Amino acid sequence: MTIHNLYIFERGGRCLFYSEWHRRRGPGIPQEEEFKLMFGMLFSLRSFVAKMSPTDMRDGFVAFHTSKYRLHYLETPSGLRLVLNTDLGVPSAREALQHIYGNLFVELVVKNPLCPPRAPVQSLLFRQRLDAFVRSLPYFGPRNPQN
Amino acid sequence: MSRQGGRGTESKKMYWYLPFISPSASLQLMNSELFTLTYGALVTQLCKDYENDDDVNKQLDKMGYNIGVRLIEDFLARSNVGRCHDFRETADVIAKIAFKMYLGITPSITNWSPGGDEFSLILENNPLVDFVELPDNHSTLIYSNLLCGVLRGALEMVQMAVDVKFVQDTLKGDSVTEIRMKFIRRIEDNLPAGEE
Amino acid sequence: MAVCIAVIAKENYPLYIRSVPTENELKFHYTVHTSLDVVDEKISAMGKALVDQRELYLGLLYPTEDYKVYGYVTNSKVKFVMVVDSSNTALRDNEIRSMFRKLHNSYTDIMCNPFYNPGDRIHSRAFDTMVNSMMMQVC
């Protein structure tokens, strides 16, 4: 059980933050491209999920999984999107994402008057605290060799 | 005979909760009088710096806007409110949750326009203006204009362009403070070029 | 009911004087001014004893043939002086104390007004209303 990486996007598509822990192979394209690809996919998935939903939807797109990993997604009404990739052993990372948003991002980045809103996160404190939090999660373990 | 500061019974405590960053995070209380005095000092310093009531009003609005774009994230994180479906729901959330959370008051919502795109918030008491009396040379000053900026900035971050202004103010002799909010349009997502 | 109420700053200049209008105002101003000496005397007498419970109310400063003058000093050395008609014997000490307490509360409210600079003359409508309620109703 492990956590691969985390992305934070804002509404216009820019990636504000990226951090990885156990990523075995990269995508083979430059990081800018990777962010654009990720955002584009999320956007399409979101609108697809909304259109195809058989009943009224509250949260919309929450997660998807493949045979190798699971992607968890949290979107705030203010347009902030948090994406966490974990391995298949993690059923839901919603609380973790909410904690990262409410207690780390809002407290350390949003409330910092020196961080302009919607700009890439430079805050070292945020990175450290996030790292400490992610490592403290019960499903963060050493990378399973099979994955 | 010892003398009590007789205003102790009236001072309202505002509760600001620290989230659980660490297990020893505690409840922090702040006296609302300190907040009122801080805001008053801010406004009077702006008056001294700008000397012109209109400029002060504009600055307060700008400052409020900067606060609003950040405050909305804190509000969403703490209150867990999802997207509002229409303007009426937005009005309810603003009056019953947001004002209560940040200022400790619950304004009432009245005067809906027939099209449902304008309404008024009536504040019986405004904690920003406790003890304040506007002198005669600042009759056009909108003392609590910061609130207008905050509301405008916060709603802009959730894709609503609104116009917010004071129509009645207890400092100017009216019986209540009334804020009029008008929905202008929805701000659409604009995608970066090359997407879809 | 008071005949004249004055608020004097720490440096002994008046921040606010209001008296019943039909009387000779100058006489009241003079009375208040001379009473300041008595106030200073009382303050210095108290200061030496260093009591742990500083009494803010000074009591009767001195009686003249028509009037009685009462004093009150705050911890920041702002003094309130009240001139009361001698013929009004119904006024007891407790009432005078409560009137001073109201004055003190209104004064602190003025200090909290961000537009008021300490040391300025007092121009507050709320303070005026409160003082008017304490002055004698002269028709």
UniProtKB/TrEMBL annotation, chain A:
Gene3D superfamilies on file: 3.30.450.70
SMART domains registered for this protein in UniProt: Sybindin
InterPro entries referenced in this protein's UniProt entry, alphabetically: Longin-like_dom_sf, TRAPPC
SUPFAM superfamilies reported for this sequence: SNARE-like
Listed GO biological process terms: endoplasmic reticulum to Golgi vesicle-mediated transport
Subcellular location: Endoplasmic reticulum; Golgi apparatus, cis-Golgi network
Main location: endoplasmic reticulum
Highest taxon above the source species: Eukaryota
Keywords: Endoplasmic reticulum, ER-Golgi transport, Golgi apparatus, Transport
Pfam families (UniProt xref): Sybindin
One cellular component term from this protein's GO annotations in UniProt: Golgi apparatus
Function: May play a role in vesicular transport from endoplasmic reticulum to Golgi.
PANTHER family assigned to the protein according to its UniProt record, in alphabetical order: TRAFFICKING PROTEIN PARTICLE COMPLEX SUBUNIT, TRAFFICKING PROTEIN PARTICLE COMPLEX SUBUNIT 1
Family: Belongs to the TRAPP small subunits family. BET5 subfamily.
Subunit structure: Part of the multisubunit transport protein particle (TRAPP) complex. The heterodimer TRAPPC6B-TRAPPC3 interacts with TRAPPC1 likely providing a core for TRAPP complex formation.
Protein name as it appears in the record: Trafficking protein particle complex subunit
Organism: Taeniopygia guttata (Zebra finch)
UniProtKB/TrEMBL annotation, chain B:
Subunit text: Homodimer.
Family according to the record: Belongs to the TRAPP small subunits family. BET3 subfamily.
UniProt-listed Pfam families: TRAPP
Compartment(s): Endoplasmic reticulum; Golgi apparatus, cis-Golgi network
Coiled-coil ranges from the UniProt annotation: none
BP GO annotations: endoplasmic reticulum to Golgi vesicle-mediated transport
UniProt keyword annotation of Transport present: yes
Source species, domain of life: Eukaryota
InterPro entries linked: Bet3, NO_sig/Golgi_transp_ligand-bd, TRAPP_component
Annotated keywords: Endoplasmic reticulum, ER-Golgi transport, Golgi apparatus, Lipoprotein, Palmitate, Transport
Protein name listed in UniProt: Trafficking protein particle complex subunit
GO cellular component term of the entry, any: Golgi membrane
Keyword flag Cell membrane: no
Function per UniProt: May play a role in vesicular transport from endoplasmic reticulum to Golgi.
Species of provenance: Taeniopygia guttata (Zebra finch)
